[in-house]
TrEMBL record:
<keyword id="KW-0547">Nucleotide-binding</keyword>
<dbReference type="InterPro" id="IPR004468">
    <property type="entry name" value="CTP_synthase"/>
</dbReference>
<keyword id="KW-0665">Pyrimidine biosynthesis</keyword>
<comment type="similarity">
    <text>Belongs to the CTP synthase family.</text>
</comment>
<dbReference type="Pfam" id="PF06418">
    <property type="entry name" value="CTP_synth_N"/>
</dbReference>
<dbReference type="InterPro" id="IPR029062">
    <property type="entry name" value="Class_I_gatase-like"/>
</dbReference>
<feature type="domain" description="CTP synthase N-terminal">
    <location>
        <begin position="2"/>
        <end position="272"/>
    </location>
</feature>
<comment type="pathway">
    <text>Pyrimidine metabolism; CTP biosynthesis via de novo pathway; CTP from UDP: step 2/2.</text>
</comment>
<dbReference type="InterPro" id="IPR027417">
    <property type="entry name" value="P-loop_NTPase"/>
</dbReference>
<dbReference type="InterPro" id="IPR017926">
    <property type="entry name" value="GATASE"/>
</dbReference>
<feature type="domain" description="Glutamine amidotransferase">
    <location>
        <begin position="309"/>
        <end position="543"/>
    </location>
</feature>
<keyword id="KW-0315">Glutamine amidotransferase</keyword>
<dbReference type="Pfam" id="PF00117">
    <property type="entry name" value="GATase"/>
</dbReference>
<dbReference type="InterPro" id="IPR017456">
    <property type="entry name" value="CTP_synthase_N"/>
</dbReference>
<comment type="function">
    <text>Catalyzes the ATP-dependent amination of UTP to CTP with either L-glutamine or ammonia as the source of nitrogen.</text>
</comment>
<keyword id="KW-0436">Ligase</keyword>
<dbReference type="InterPro" id="IPR033828">
    <property type="entry name" value="GATase1_CTP_Synthase"/>
</dbReference>
Length: 562
């Protein structure tokens, strides 16, 4: 196994995940099979209980793993299906070592960070790197490892030591270290400053790891004298200093690496030139250029709870990007804090209230994504009502679907107290209930998680046609609450249709509103399986409806199924 380690320095949030994914893309374009591992040095066992404001979205895998959003980048870029074990955390490592200690596996030994924790990290990396993730038999050729955080963080020290030992064990022909760093420009001087990167590399070398490559993040392309200076002080050849400057869209990053011959240099470092094919990134080039040349855009109202940090909805944003590109338009996302739409805001923050409603009314479609807790729920219900009554295309995901059920029950069935058990457990009109198999005492990994089958109840529905007339679909879930099966009959009599259900037929998965251009709610999270070139069906339907392309698509699918 060949290992490519991607570390980061100076500041966090430099784009190590996108860099690691792009390196994987160029290696895959050379005919190699690539897998990836993300190391998160925090003590949480997984990302499931963390606030989106603190750590961005929680990405859900097929096996139900709740992981860091960077694994979403890997899946989208490399078109692979990862497992929960591809995300290593300090919590997982310590948990496994402590379990062994309690069982007596270390009997007589003093259990320590070195060697027991570091050995556990190495064993985990070596084991997971051998697991195929691309649907083929046998292990991958290269494993790209991203170490979260920045070099020098206290919590990442055991991982750095474990990776140093791994490098020593596998040898230099099987290990490549790429250090991602920032080259800032001070406004007054206007000079590209290399000192932060010098200090970062010095810190890394003091810990026993010397980078083979520097991936330098900057606003503008690096100047030649900047590269010379970096080479001189960081002990890295000029040819191995890669510049990842700001680009119009992230699909350009693999092309940026290719233009600097990064693939050849990495292949030489790992002695893979003899087995690699000439790099072929024609599909990526076409995708990046196509998006750059789009002139029309579509306005999408994103009514959510965590709009202050766009990473909270990263996969949703990417799924919209994929769908819009397929429809030959650019996404123009209008972020609306759901609470700003509420009547209370009219008194407390009249300007925000007016702006939110003006933005909502100016959008071509409305999207209400997932979330937890009751903050902003009234605003989401108002957004769903606006979309339903004004024939504006609407997509509700997870909580967004439950919101549309609550709104329909209140407005159409006249059940003024209709609500979810999550927001009002005492209401007499529970239309959304806590799932019987859920836990009310433990939060981590107790939801309905991972890939589940949804069966279409009829082929005569929008969503079945968007899923290419499939009889069933497998999508990823992450929820504790569901539509109350006892009210389904009443809702359907009033006009709502539950066109997708689980295998028992009792759990509602997809709803539609006949007579509306596109009013869809899905209990699952379709954004997690969206890929460049293969957009997610619900998102594609929403954008098609917003741009007037859905009717033609439906006719095409109908003709195809006759």
């Amino acid at each position: 196994m060949k290992y490519v380690l991607v570390t980061g320095g100076v500041v966090s949030g430099l784009g190590k995940g996108v860099t690691a994914s792009s390196i994987g893309v160029v290696l895959k374009a050379c005919g190699l099979r690539v897998t990836s591992i993300k190391i998160d040095p925090y003590l949480n066992t997984d990302a499931g209980t963390m606030s989106p404001f603190e750590h961005g979205e929680v990405f859900v895998l097929d096996d139900g793993g709740e992981v860091d959003l960077d694994l979403g980048n890997y899946e989208r870029f490399l078109d692979v299906t990862l497992t929960r074990d591809n995300n290593i955390t300090t919590g997982k490592i310590y948990q496994s070592v402590l379990e062994k200690e309690r069982k007596g596996d270390y009997l007589g030994k003093t259990v320590q960070v070195v060697p027991h924790i570091t050995d556990a990290i190495k064993d985990w990396i070596e084991s997971v790197s051998l697991t195929p993730v691309d649907g083929k038999e046998g292990a991958a050729d290269v494993c790209v490892i991203e170490l979260g955080g920045t070099v020098g963080d206290i919590e990442s020290m055991p991982f750095i030591e474990a990776l140093r030992q791994l490098y020593f064990t596998v040898g230099q022909d099987n290990f490549c270290l790429i250090h991602v760093s920032l080259i800032p420009v001070l406004g007054v001087v206007g000079e590209q400053k290399t000192k932060p990167t010098q200090h970062s590399v010095r810190e890394l070398r003091a810990l026993g790891l010397t980078p083979h490559f520097l991936a330098c993040r900057s606003a503008q392309p690096l100047l030649e004298n900047t590269k010379q200076k970096l080479s001189q002080f960081c002990h890295v050849p000029v040819a191995n200093i890669l510049n990842i400057h700001d680009v119009p869209n992230i699909w350009h990053i693999p092309l940026l690496l290719q233009n600097q011959n990064a693939h050849d240099a990495i292949l030489k470092q790992m002695d893979l030139m003899s087995v690699a094919k000439p790099v072929d990134l024609r599909e990526w080039t076409k995708r990046a250029e196509t998006f750059d040349n789009l002139t029309k855009s579509v306005r999408i109202a994103m009514v959510g709870k965590y709009v202050g940090l766009t990473d909270s909805y990263l996969s949703v944003v990417k799924a919209l990007l994929h769908a819009c590109t397929a429809c030959s338009v650019k996404p123009s996302i209008d972020w609306i804090a759901a609470s700003d739409l509420e009547d209370d805001s009219a008194q407390s923050a009249p300007e925000a209230y007016a702006t939110a409603w003006k933005t909502l009314r100016g959008a071509a479609c409305v999207l209400v994504p997932g979330g937890f807790g009751d903050r902003g729920v009234k605003g989401m219900i108002l957004a769903a009502k606006y979309a339903r009554e004004n024939n504006v295309p609407y997509l509700g995901i997870c909580l967004g679907m439950q919101i549309s059920v609550i709104e329909f029950a209140r407005s159409v069935l006249r059940l003024e107290k209709a609500n979810s058990e999550e927001f009002d457990p005492q209401t007499p009109d529970l239309v959304v209930i806590f799932m019987p198999e859920g836990s009310k005492t433990h939060m981590g990994s107790t939801m309905r998680l991972g890939s589940r089958k949804t069966l279409f109840q009829t082929p005569d529905c929008i969503m079945s046609k968007l899923y290419n007339n499939s009889k069933h679909v497998d999508e990823r879930h992450r929820h504790r609450y569901e539509v109350n099966p006892e009210v389904v009959g009443t809702l359907e009599e009033a006009g709502l249709r539950f066109v997708g259900r689980d295998e028992t037929g009792k759990r509602m998965e997809i709803l539609e509103l006949p007579g509306h251009p596109f009013y869809v709610g899905v209990q699952f999270h379709p954004e997690y399986k969206s890929r460049p070139g293969r957009p997610s069906a619900p998102f594609l339907g929403l954008i098609m409806a917003a741009t007037g392309q859905l009717e033609a698509h439906d006719k095409t699918q109908q003709n195809g199924s006759i």
